[in-house]
Amino acid sequence: MSEKKIWWRDAVIYQVYPRSFKDSNGDGEGDLGGVIAGIPYLADLGVDAIWLSPFYKSPNKDGGYDVSDPRDVDPRFGTLDEAKKLIDTAHAHGIKFIADIVPNHFSTEHAWFKAALASPKGSPERARFHFYDGRGPNGDTPPNNWISIFRGPSWTRVTEPDGSAGQWYLHLFDSSQPDLNWANPDVEEDFEKTLRFWLDLGADGFRIDVAHGCVKDKIDVDHRDPNRLIDALRLDFLDITTEERAGLLSDVPFFDREGVHDIYRKWRKIFDSYSGDRMSVAEAFVYPSSRAARYVRSDELHQVFNFNFMMLGWDAKIMSESIKTTLEELKDVKAPATWVLNNHDTPRVVTRIGSPRKARALAQLIHSLPGGVYIYQGEELGLPSADLPDAARQDPAFIRSGGSDKGRDECRVPLPWDSTQPHYGYGTGTPWLPQPADWAQYCMNVEAADPASSLNFYKQMLQLRRGNASLGGEGAITWIDSEPEVMHFTREPGLEVVVNTSSVEKSVKVSGKKILLASHEGTNATDGVLQLPADTTVWLER
Ligand code: NOJ
After folding, report:
1. Which distant-in-sequence residues (6+ apart) come within 8 Å of 154 by Cβ?
2. Whose CA is nearest to atom 11 of ligand 1?
3. Which of 357, 359, 363 is nearest to 349 (CA)?
4. Backbone φ and ψ of 44, nearest 5°
5. CATH fold of 468-541, please?
6. Which residue of 159, 168, 393, 473 lies most exposed, with the fewest beta carbons within 10 A?
7. Cα–Cα distance, 455 to 416 (Å, whole number)
8. Using CA positions, which residue lies closest to atom 6 of ligand 1?
9. Is 477 helix (H, G, I), strand (E, B) or coil?
10. 243: Cβ–Cβ under 8 A, 6 or more apart, which residues?
11. What is the mean pLDDT of the segment spanning 293-314?
12. Residue 214 near residue 103, CB atoms below 8 Å
């Protein structure tokens, strides 16, 4: 007797960044109408679910991660009725819907923050955020020396209602994103309302923004090296050695505090009170990686993004060690792994890994691993990050760093749909970020017509994954000894996977005879020997 399959444990989840997906009303910005129009494309691609980055009311200082009303839709994106229509349309196509929830901060435009500004020091309105007096005789030095993740101070001073220079509020991100005080019961209550609001509307789950950040410690203590700490928290790791990073990240006063787990234990009870296996995925970038498993203990969240794997280079040995570590770390808590190659905060995988060929082979590898997979919109087209003129950049990370950090706009350029239409069919208005002049080649219509395209490769891969019990799922991996630049393993009941990360062809002894899928041409298996070209992944049926 097989147990009932729980959909999210090995789902393929497609991230939609709605502002850049498809613009249905010609204002140059993607919207919910555009996402609705794109559902048949996503169903045809073969994904199990979509996760939508925020589309809630927001002044859009940080791409909608600055929420001014989490229970309403921003007019730039559409209406609440359209959100409902989107959820229903996705469901009608057999696609689950995952919303994004942003519990670490609100926007300064949220009614609560406006009320806090209008209320005196010590008021209940201010107690929902982190308001503190400044240091020094006039209070004009921030309460501590923490640096914002987007650079610059993480404190902004307010003007009191009587016009005097006043208290300071904490913002780990942009000054338009005041951090919420989770020690205040109002905050907990309000988020419960928000969760229930979207669950009632039909959401199948949530991606939890900065899940590790909601609880702060030691606000009255300066950090010994706040700038270096922010370097260490960046997803590209700069030039930091493992030892230095371990030292810096062992005790971050605003991340991965014990108290965050109390929040998720309460949230889990809410998810479980709904029918239909509702789920949650934590954006929790914690160090060391073993700490991530604590977010997916059986009474907490369901998945956690595997950012440690995401940041690795194309190297069979390093990747296989990381895969083993991931599976080992999650074994005790019985949570499935996740595999993700890029998102709206990182360079696109083609650019990060250095070539479309490697990116395709890497994608095929992660689709053969146990657990769930995330695809970032446009990844299926093989889109690279786009070159942008500085004048076009809008990311607060670019603005706050004075341009030393180029920010994340390069991976957020609007998608190319149709090479015969203006703006590649994204919409009739001028796109909010300029699309490169050579993107016709990546348009969905062009790729759909080319059997060797990235799009058709992804389609075939997802179709095979769906129909093959050895792919995805949660069964074990059996590793087979191989030379350092080759990864070789089998999965039950009948799959063999070989990956060549070197730049030369390799001969590998295999037991499988039939090639199910190869990321590139030129692969063949005869008499138990596989000839595997450079930078290629192969699935064989055993
Ligand atoms: C993580 C989100 O993915 C990112 O886009 C955002 O800027 C920060 N959290 C702040 O909400």
Report:
1. 142, 146, 147, 148, 170, 171, 172
2. 65
3. 359
4. -65, -35
5. Immunoglobulin-like (2.60.40)
6. 159
7. 12
8. 65
9. strand
10. none
11. 96
12. yes
| Cα 173 to ligand 1 centroid, rounded to whole Å | 8
Pinpoint the residues of the chain covered by CATH 3.20.20.80. Answer: 7-107+182-465
Please give the pLDDT value at position 143.
Answer: 97
Where does CATH 2.60.40.1180 sit in the chain? Answer: 468-541
Return d(Cα 512, Cα 489) in angstroms, integer. 11
Q: Half-sphere exposure of 530 toward its Cβ, with a 13 Å CA cutoff?
A: 29
Q: pLDDT averaged over the chain? A: 96
Structure tokens at 468: 């093959």
- Cα(65) to ligand 1 centroid in Å equals 6
Instruction: Write down the catalytic residue from 283, 329, 345, 409.
Output: 283
The tens digit of pLDDT for each residue in 309-323 reads 999 999 999 999 999
- Please confirm, yes or no, whether 272 is among the known catalytic residues: no
In what helix (H) or strand (E) does residue 49 lie, and over which residues does it extend? strand 49-52
What's domain 7-107+182-465's superfamily in CATH?
Glycosidases (3.20.20.80)
Pocket test for ligand 1, best of 62, 98, 374 (most atoms within 8 A of CB): 62
| Residues contacting ligand 1 via CB (< 6 Å) | 62-63, 65, 102, 173, 209-210, 283, 344-345
